[in-house]
Amino acid sequence: MKVTRKDLEKSQVELLVELSVADFAPYIEKGAQKLSEEVKIEGFRPGKVPYDILKQKVGEMSILEQAAHLAIHKTIDATIDENIKDQEVAGQPRVEVSKLAPGNPMEYKIIVAVLPEIKIGKYKDLGIKQEEAKVDEKDIQKALNDVAESRAKESITADPIKSGDKAIIDLDMFLDKVPAEDGQARDLTVLIGKDYFVPGFDKSLIGAKKGEEINFSLPFPADYHQKTFAGKMVDFKVKIKEVYNREIPELSDDLARGFGLKKLEDLKKFFADNMAHRLEHQNEQKSEIAMLDKILEKSNFGDLPESLIQNEAELIMAELEQEIVKQGGKFEDYLQSIGKERQQLMMELLPQAVKRVKSALMLREVAKAEDLKISVEEIDKKIEELKIQYKADANVAKMIKEPGYRGYLGNILANQKVLKKLREWNIG
């Protein structure tokens, strides 16, 4: 077997593999045997069909294609290991049969992405300062007011709409007197005084009564998320279907008792603690991003394989889609709301994907330089923790048992260990 290596751009390597007629002959024999077991030919038992009869039945190229598949499967791993010793392979190889004909050598190409050369910059004593988690009293007050509003008592009224009421409406929107795409809503709930949807919308309903139909026009902000309406004057036709008075309870100990607490101060402390915890987490993320950016800024990377970047962009897209679905939305609706096609969004995610790939490669280099490794015991311990945490989730239990999961989990734990060390060295 002859192998010719060719270094390509973008950190790719091409291996041209040639099996001589003699090298390929055993695979032809095995390929014919496999096909003879699968193809039913009258007068012959499975696996006992003579080669010439089989060739007439399925065609010689079918036998050669089966043989090529077997040859590639048998030789590809060793070929990569023996010919790319000085670099680490990234992702799955691409394989293409380049020559396959009766009585000739068989030839196939392997194209693999390899990790580029990396020179990491300074990664210790960077002096990153983490912001203190200070909770604003206004945010606590807003949370208390929101909770009180959620416990409001509502009663139907025939009176005109006033600030603080709730209205159920049917809505139609028009652009240049033409019904707007996605500009209709039925049984829409509007809280008067909240000034959401578009500035001035809820105030335009004040004074209207149940059963009335009103018309008005409002300008949409230039940065409105639905590009259809952004920066345009939109005409509204609104039918008032129901009006509710809302009696909001006072901020008192009674309100706190509705949440299993004794006093209003306890409820206030509950919100303050939760906000502080959330702020602390946000500040940790900010300081970590600042630290990684500073290290990446002083690091040098060879050409990144396009396959790595593409895979990372697809992963980011999948994470975004999963988050939207988790919140009860549809990804197609999200794309429509931002006025973008899936492929367009994918292209916009590429810079973020490049940064994530570089960060992952940088963490690997720090792990090597500092000899930070994950032991078998650490992986075992984490798996046991996950089993307990997700014992009622059959999908997680199945995932944990999959062959590649230990390696995947090991990579996550290794990154966490490196990040923890980097935080110790750099963030104060």
Automatic annotation (TrEMBL):
Keyword list, A-Z: Cell cycle, Cell division, Chaperone, Cytoplasm, Isomerase, Rotamase
Keyword check for ATP-binding: no
Main location: cytoplasm
Residue ranges occupied by any Trigger factor ribosome-binding bacterial domain in the UniProt entry: 1-146
EC number(s) recorded for this UniProt protein: 5.2.1.8
Highest taxon listed in the record's lineage: Bacteria
Domain spans labelled Trigger factor C-terminal: 264-422
Record field: catalytic activity: [protein]-peptidylproline (omega=180) = [protein]-peptidylproline (omega=0)
Keyword Isomerase: yes
Residue ranges occupied by any PPIase FKBP-type domain in the UniProt entry: 161-240
GO biological process: 'de novo' cotranslational protein folding; cell division; protein transport; protein unfolding
Pfam hit, one: FKBP_C
GO molecular function list: peptidyl-prolyl cis-trans isomerase activity; protein folding chaperone; ribosome binding
Record's subcellular location: Cytoplasm
Record's GO cellular component terms: cytoplasm
Family, similarity comment: Belongs to the FKBP-type PPIase family. Tig subfamily.
Matches recorded under PANTHER family: TRIGGER FACTOR CHAPERONE AND PEPTIDYL-PROLYL CIS/TRANS ISOMERASE (PTHR30560), TRIGGER FACTOR-LIKE PROTEIN TIG, CHLOROPLASTIC (PTHR30560:SF3)
Protein task: Involved in protein export. Acts as a chaperone by maintaining the newly synthesized protein in an open conformation. Functions as a peptidyl-prolyl cis-trans isomerase.
Record's comment describing the protein's domains: Consists of 3 domains; the N-terminus binds the ribosome, the middle domain has PPIase activity, while the C-terminus has intrinsic chaperone activity on its own.
Protein name (Swiss-Prot/TrEMBL): Trigger factor
Organism: Candidatus Falkowbacteria bacterium CG1_02_41_21
Organism taxonomic ancestry: Bacteria, Candidatus Falkowiibacteriota
Gene name in the database record: tig
